[in-house]
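If you are new to this repository, start here. Below is one unmodified record pulled from the training split, so you can see the exact layout before writing a loader.
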Amino acid sequence: MTDTNHKKTKNVFEIHTMEKDNQTKKPGVVAPQSPQKTDTKKLEKTEKKPQKKNVQEKKAVANPFLTSTDVSQKETEEQGVFPPKMDTDQDTPFANIKKEVVKDAQKESKEQKTDSLLSTEPKKQKNMVRMIMIACVTLFIIGAIGVVVYILFISKNNATKNPEPTQPDIPSQQNQDTPQPQNQQPDGQIYSTVLPNYIIVNVESPTSESDIAAKLDEIAMNISAKNITEPIAFTINDSNNNPISFHIFATSAKMNVPQNILSALEESFELYAYNDPGFGVRFGLVIDVKNEDALKTALAQSEKQLPAACSLFIDAEFDASTISFNDSVYDTQTEGYDPYAIRYVNLDAQGAYSLDYTVQQSDFYIGTTKDMMRAMIMDVQASEYMPEDAVL
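And here is the target side for that same chain:
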């Protein structure tokens, strides 16, 4: 009985070895079967345990992470049969997940590359714009410097080729409250017969009349002290060293010139001082004429008012109601100048003061002696006046 059982068990159960498995995998090779001893006790135990129950228990304890193909593969391995190797490219849940992960990774890498390219392009554009701006500013600065240098070079060359003529020095402007003193001439003379002489008058001062009279007295004293024999011309300036008009001067000195005479005169004028050999320093005026015919008409109507209007220059008492003008002619015998028709009136018996006037070549002359009048006319003609050579 035991022999038959042993034979049955020998035919039913086989023990698998690695060598046998390797031989079964190779096609056309049959693994040799070696006689094996079996333990009867173990066989009895195995007979008692049913095979299906064992498989079910293994299935119950199966790994939850294994798929159905993995379980069947494991069962076949336990039974000694190795199924063909599964292709990894087949569609399985894990394979699909792996593909999706790979696709996502590739997509993210592409997005990162595009983002990096997009982020670098604005930086490059900004750098290019910055470099262009710096280049433009640099070129502008260089061009400006070149223009300045060129202008300076041209102006310097022009200055060396065409030097400007030297002009006489004009007294600088001074403070309104501090009048400017008279010019000091380089040769020691206090007044010049060639260069301009200036008198500064504060025309806005309420004492302008007395201030002007004081300056005239100072000029007379200086001319007498220096024994100056030539006529001296003065320009009247205000406290800002600007020439004042005859209208303003007449108002400041309270000359009361008739309006019809004043309206025919221009703004510019000169004040003359002359050291008369017989009577001392006398003053006169040379005023530009606006309308010569209108002035002559006004003088014919209002000449009797002139001595009172020029009382600032006349240190004598006279009766204005008895004034009567006379005619005289002064021929300078200068080519281009006609004889001067002079109207005059003596204001005292000695003839120390008179009022003489004439209109010639758009100039209105007013003198306070005969010689003073003639000296002014000769000075305007740029000629020297000698009293002893006067032609009556």
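Two things worth knowing about this chain: Residues 1-12, 34-38, 52-62, 165-182 have pLDDT under 50 and may be disordered. The first strand starts at residue 197 and ends at 200.
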